[in-house]
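dumping these here so i dont lose them again. two proteins, back to back, each one seq then structure tokens. dont judge the mess
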Amino acid sequence: MKYYTEKESVAEYIKMAKDVDSGKLIMKLNDFLPKNSTLLEIGSGPGTDFRLLKKVYKVIGSDYSSEFLNHLVSNNENDEFLNLDAVTLTTNKNFDGIYSNKVLQHLTDEELKKSIFRQAEILNLNGIICHSFWKGEGEEEFKGMFVNYQSAESLRILFEKNFEILLLEEYMEFDEGDSLVLIGKKK
């Protein structure tokens, strides 16, 4: 995705996302994943969620964009970040939990299926996932970013083979019911 590879668009995204508060989303995760658990954040981007997550968990951040990784490392010098593709998640590390906020929406359904399978592989026994998505149908290009909208039913179908769904509900990021959060436990 070209948008996340260019310095100007990454700076634009950081500015655009600076006021987004994911505290309520992370509080939902706290109900299922114990404090001090190891957690991988897929797509740490500007690092806003990463900083909230590390107050509770032992977090390793990640991003596929070298521009975001440079930003993350320079603003979080004592933390660990991996250069990871959200589909392949090529790492030999295992985690108690995996978190992403509006990251997996940039994958096609086929790529998402591969990512879900790989997430199950790198999670410890009874591992927990927490992912958010834009709610809707279809797909579009938005500012050079591919967006694959999901419904509660489409997420259930995609995830239920590898995960017991513990929570799947709508929430509001900008407009009432514009987003979905899914929390699941590795089968």
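---- next one ----
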Amino acid sequence: MNNQENPDPKIETGVYHAPWEKSFDRILTPFEEFIHRQTTSGFLLMCMAVVALVLANGPLASAYERVLHVLIGLNIGSWALEMTLHHWINDGLMALFFFVVGLELKREFVVGELANPRNAVLPIAAAIGGMVIPALIYFSINPRGDAADGWGISMATDIAFAIGVLALLASRVPKALITFLVALAIVDDLGAVMVIAVFYTDTIALGPLLASAGLFALLLAFNLGGIRNSIPYFVVAVLMWYALQQSGVHATLAGILGALTVPAVPKYDPARFSEHVRELMNRFDSTHQLGTSIMTNDELRAVVQALENGVRSVEAPLQRLEHIWHMPVAYLVIPIFALANAGIPLTFGSLGETLSHPVMLGVALGLLLGKFIGITGASWLVLKLGVAELPKDTRFTQIAGVSLLAGIGFTMSIFVAQLGFGEREDLLLMAKTGILAASLLAGVAGFIWLYLVSKPEAAQDQSPLTRI
């Protein structure tokens, strides 16, 4: 066959594909995209945790510590903001993480699994049980002294790691079980944020706190005034971050507060958008001249710009920002946080002392047993009372398996440990050891449990994890 019978596909279709572009052209639903990024983020977290452990226990250990404690400052005239690289990561970059968490929270409560009270009861009850019981277990082992400050460490679930493990069972678990885990972890994050705001704030500076409240009110005014451009929200949220940093309240909460003010309602409904697009496409077809570049046709460019504006108007700003920020947070912010915080010096000669330390035991048992007992017990209770129902195609034994996966604390647990034991390096080391040990055991135990209680035919509707 000659080239005339098989014309160049790029000429035939009018579409140019860069060498790697087709692999990115898959159309994913927002939920599939969310799961895919969490799964990849979980893999990156694991890699960065291993790298951090190697750095902390190898010949580069001292260099690793020095780099984390390098001072980095911003100076404008007499004004200066100076923190170590470690603090910039934990207080600055992590604000972006909390911003995405806030967007996820708002979406879930507006249109997600938590928007329907009947569907929300089970994950909310499970999350509450999964926060209270771990805290009680930790506090029973560490009831007094500085060690008692770590009671909030084992309350959190790392959604990226947990979904990453569940992805390995994509052909065996129903889609509804994945949705349950996402909803549970998001409520869990909300509880962790509330604990940080209320219990992990030492001193309050009233002036900066009032300033941050005023800036939050301004963000609400932007929302009520119909402002949809993200730049004003970003500028004010950065100022609120600085005000909270000066107030004594943890600055990362600015991410959550800023996200909650982002508009969740699009300007156009789908019917109006469809009508608008049809009008523009009629103009596009009548204006387009075959063989001429769009760069020389001003009217055509104007139509394309109007189409872009219409697309932005049919998508809620919250939805758009979640799509934009999820990738840098999942692929950069969280792995960098893991690299900076998972480096634990391991001394095998004192391993027995480490494993028997009350803080290590409190954190590990809280994540392993506390999450399992709390989530499974609370779920059984609300199901028994008839105020909730199991997700579609899901068995209670699978809920119990998810409760084991919820014991993977990692990101949020390490974050809370930094707040609770920031001035006690010895206790922080014990807490991190407990987090890593419990997260590893919880992931393995949860995988084995779900593998044994789930069968391939249980995934009646093809899981989104298998389509990504």
